[in-house]
Amino acid sequence: MKNSLAQRDRQPEFMDQPGLDRDEHARALAGLRRINFISGTSASLLAPIEKLAREKENKPLQILELACGGGDTAIDLALHARRKGLAIKLHACDINPEAVEIAKANSLRRGVELEFFCADALEASDQEKDFDVVFCSLFLHHLNNADAEQLLKIMNKRARYLVLLTDLIRSRLGYGMAWAGTRLLSRSWVVHTDGPLSVKAAFQIEEVRALTQRAGIQNAKLQRCWPERYLLSWEGN
């Protein structure tokens, strides 16, 4: 496994394939929701967003999530904001119309109102700095190096104050945890297959650092998070 993880290995994942059965898609997203809750995916994003919301409490923060999937991270943030009395307005998009419909249903089921819409995360907006915060979770590893660099540039262009990106770290530990965790926390064969593939496609810490430099991001902070994930953040510029 050590040698096979030396370089990124991007293989097609079932969640990315057109024509995936709707029930299988929903089952996979439910499994990912459980895994991401245990992994604290939303938790790593909460603190910096809450800090900014307290600083800018004169008006609601306009927040955009790119490539939202089933919408769980955005929904978690909305629920957290409601509990904490934070003034935020969440928007979230995904290129897959089926994922957007599932996200809308999840939002209604969990009792929050968010704006979900279809859009390609890699399509540059005509407007600059149109959101206060732009974030992305567990999407970068799906992209080739050029598209990953493009994503960072787009996020930087659209964020007035803060950019946040969290994803997997490619490592032996990460692979082992993905293999075991997907089987323990989900019955979806899609999740069982795609989870370990995601780790093999992910970046290592130094690769993320080099990626931000090529994208022209000068003030980025990069920190490791449990379990074998990282949070990349920088102030809008």
How would you describe this protein?
This protein is α/β, with parallel strands linked by helices. The chain has one domain: Vaccinia Virus protein VP39 (Rossmann fold). It is built from eight helices and seven strands. A seven-stranded mixed beta sheet has the order 3-2-1-4-5-7-6, with helices on both faces. Helix 4 links the parallel strand 2 and strand 3 (115-118). Helix 6 runs antiparallel to helix 7 (189-201). The radius of gyration is 17 Å and the shape is globular. 41% of the residues are buried.
What layout of secondary structure does this protein have?
Elements (H helix, E strand, L loop, with lengths): L21 H18 L3 H13 L5 E6 L5 H13 L3 E7 L2 H13 L5 E4 L12 E7 L7 H14 E10 L3 H14 L3 H13 L3 H10 L6 E5 L3 E7 L2
Parallel strand pairs: 1-2, 1-4, 2-3, 4-5
Antiparallel strand pairs: 5-7, 6-7
